[in-house]
Amino acid sequence: AQVIGTEARGVYNNGQAEGLTFWAPNINVFRDPRWGRGQETPGEDPTMTGKYAAVFVRGVQGYAISGAINSSDLEASACCKHFTAYDLENWKGVTRFAFDAKVTEQDLADTYNPPFKSCVEDGGASGIMCSYNRVNGVPTCADHNLLSKTARGDWSFNGYITSDCDAVAIIHDVQGYAKAPEDAVADVLKAGMDVNCGGYIQTHGVSAYQQGKITGEDIDRALRNLFAIRMRLGLFNGNPKYNRYGNIRADQVCKKEHQDLALQAAQDGIVLLKNDAGALPLSKSKVSSVAVIGPNGNNASLLLGNYFGPPCISVTPFQALQGYVKDATFVQGCNAAVCNVSNIGEAVHAASSADYVVLFMGLDQNQEREEVDRLELGLPGMQESLVNKVADAAKKPVILVLLCGGPVDVTFAKNNPKIGAIVWAGYPGQAGGIAIAQVLFGEHNPGEILFHPTLSNSWRLS
């Protein structure tokens, strides 16, 4: 997070960015493993998510990772989202715009709100984003109890509150909570929201004021909160090169120390789920040939997940493994993670001809992302069949690497003796291919704890 803030300020100081507000981190609790945006979050544990939120915010905003916050200046502005009880995109026709989360007061206090409380009290966040959904019938962006009483009152939040994009419009247009567009504008401003991502308040704010539904003080309060953050960022202090963070240059982007950190993050995020009979690590001196098989094996963009910037380097897992084994072949096996078109015969032939086989399977952004939830937890399409047939054809137990954000049910692989090792790599970023190769060949020890549970595909079928 410190690197994010530093690189952002460097780009801004160089005149390549117009602002310094980041709508991150996503600190919603990953309670339903089918949620498409779970990949953005730290997981299902509210306490761990809260600690992550505080450290992330402090890093982006230029504070020390712990201790007192002794400066009101901001290197960049972080915004904790989505407040609150948001973990659904589109589930069997129920969209996040219409969803009404029924949450007990205790569950709100114990599960959903603690990460945001930590974000504000321990991290000193300068922004909060209210979510699309309703909580117990009330849109979060129109909930005075959440925004003003809890965040600003109980937690002493001192920053701006934004809506998610077009979240004000849906209060009238989708949810029917507000009887008129002007009522939606009044509901959110009086609840404590300061800025609308979208044009709804711009379109209906004047008529809301003319109808007496909002006052000048409502508008002034929102402007004070918004301009205070811009002042803390130094946006009115002239040439940024002569201000507090003016010595940070654009050459901070992609510097070696930052790329080394990206590699370390990828390494530390890889988890070993199975390793029978010493299948891993591989030995460079003993592996004469390797077949890399699977839709996620030779596409660097699939390492990045969602909401990413342009990577400094681009190395696929197959390319990284070529650095360890000269005789390396790649067969995609499936058209993509959806795997509704396959070439199992070619994959089986490659597997039977190689000394070792590494399968790269899992999900991609067509399976899980913003606006897309999964209906089940199994590997998509014909992936399971591809894995089993390749394992049957291989000379030695194969290695299965999973690239995915949310959990997938690989019980079949756990129980198959022809699958020697299972590695979960998440979406490990620009250095992911290198990190995976290093783990497979014993140059880095994988972790043993996932940020989400391993569940069977029969989990909560409803």
Count of helical stretches: 15
Q: What strand order characterises the main sheet?
A: 10-15-14-13-11-12
Order of helices and strands: HEHEEEEHHEEEHEHHHHHEEHEHEHEHEH
User: Roughly what percent helix?
Assistant: 25-40%
The first-level CATH class name of the largest domain? Alpha Beta
The CATH homologous superfamily of the largest domain is named Glycoside hydrolase, family 3, N-terminal domain
How many domain units?
Answer: 2
CATH topology of the largest domain: TIM Barrel
Number of strands: 15
Largest sheet: 6 strands, mixed
CATH structural architecture of the largest domain: Alpha-Beta Barrel
What is the mean predicted local confidence, pLDDT? 95
β-sheet strand percentage: 5-15%
Low-confidence blocks of residues:
none
Query: Which structural class best describes the helix and strand composition?
Result: alpha/beta
What does this 3D model show about the protein?
There is one protein chain. With 462 residues, the chain is α/β, with parallel strands linked by helices. It folds into two domains: 21-232, Glycoside hydrolase, family 3, N-terminal domain (TIM Barrel, Alpha-Beta Barrel), CATH 3.20.20.300; 259-440, Rossmann fold, CATH 3.40.50.1700. The protein contains 15 helices and 15 strands. It has helices at 2-13, 46-61, 105-112, 114-121, 144-154, 167-173, 181-191, 200-210, 216-232, 256-269, 317-322, 344-353, 383-393, 411-414, 432-440, and strands spanning 21-22, 77-83, 90-91, 94-95, 100-101, 127-130, 134-135, 138-139, 160-163, 271-275, 289-293, 327-331, 356-362, 398-403, 419-424. Strands 10-15-14-13-11-12 form a six-stranded mixed beta sheet. It has a four-stranded parallel beta sheet with strand order 1-2-6-9. Helix 2 links the parallel strand 1 and strand 2 (77-83). Helix 6 (167-173) crosses helix 7. The longest helix is centred in the middle third of the chain and has 17 residues, at 216-232. The chain is globular and about 75 Å long.
